[in-house]
Amino acid sequence: MQHSIDYWLWADLIAPESQRLLKNVIRVEQQEEADIFYVPFFTTISYFLLEKQECKALYREALKWVTDQPAWQRSEGRDHVIPVHHPWSFKSVRRFVKKAIWLLPDMDSTGNWYKPGQVYLEKDVILPYVPNVDLCDYKCVSETQSKRSTLLFFRGRLKRNAGGKIRSKLVTELQSIEDIIIEEGSAGAKGKVAAQTGMRKSLFCLNPAGDTPSSARLFDAIVSGCIPVIISDELELPFEGILDYSKIALFVSSTDAVQPGWLVKYLRGIDAQRVREMQSNLLKYSRHFLYSSPAQPLGPEDLTWRMIAGKLVNIKLHIQRSRRVVRESRSVCTCECRVGNTTRML
């Protein structure tokens, strides 16, 4: 399941210490000893498995239990981590936990999925989807290198809402070009095989916005050795404080992408040396997006803990500040440090 990040993180935390490979996160027995509190609640799986009203009732029950804890009340949840990796996860009670660290697939700034002020990079962490296809490792890349005859590949829903409306425009622009494949996707085993085969035969993989700015397709492309061409103006990326995506992906503005002939000319103009360098980097970067048990050093679980650790000083600042402010003080620091997302072509 592409949103099952809560399962993989919890699997790492509950594994016996003798079997864990990650040593930068240590479970403690007493609340007073903890720097961060991970909330082990499967918000996304609950949404998919339960009826709507049953799910909402479970969300309310989980909310009450968490917010009744002394640790939550000491910090108002600022040092708590909650997996919210689907746009609908925990949605009915999110407003009560907005100070917590949310683990998200993206930060849609259009307001379609998150209310203004609920999510921002300084507080939350973007996590990759779980890839739907198998890893194309060094042996696989070597075997497929000469077979990548498709310039650009896309398999998925051709019509989406919100920012995904660009998909239908791209279909009109690209579908009749000989060495470009644009096709409607399908779920299940056959759909996986078709997507995996197509990506392994292609130099570039198209990653347009859908109903949300992100999709699992980006990470499918990365582990397939297919250079992502990202056309999603509102996209935020996982672990960008650690990883440099300019080494493995191309970023194109939606305005440029739909100009007649522009995208094809741009891709054909990328020299072979740069393509080889990016393909080589994809091999090195794949490890950062492969969830596993036991969790691996520099895998997504490890990078998640590292990103959270980097927020600790700021978390403690706000916790301690909230304890000493008097009635006349500003309840919230109004310093504006959030930078709007912009897309540039690399």
TrEMBL record:
The keyword Transcription does not apply. Belongs to the glycosyltransferase 47 family. Keywords: Glycosyltransferase, Golgi apparatus, Signal-anchor, Transferase, Transmembrane. GO terms for molecular function: glycosyltransferase activity. This is Exostosin GT47 domain-containing protein. It comes from the Eukaryota. The keyword Transferase applies. It is a single-pass type II membrane protein. Its main location: Golgi. Residues 2-267 form the Exostosin GT47 domain. One of its GO terms (cellular component) is Golgi membrane. It is found in: Golgi apparatus membrane.
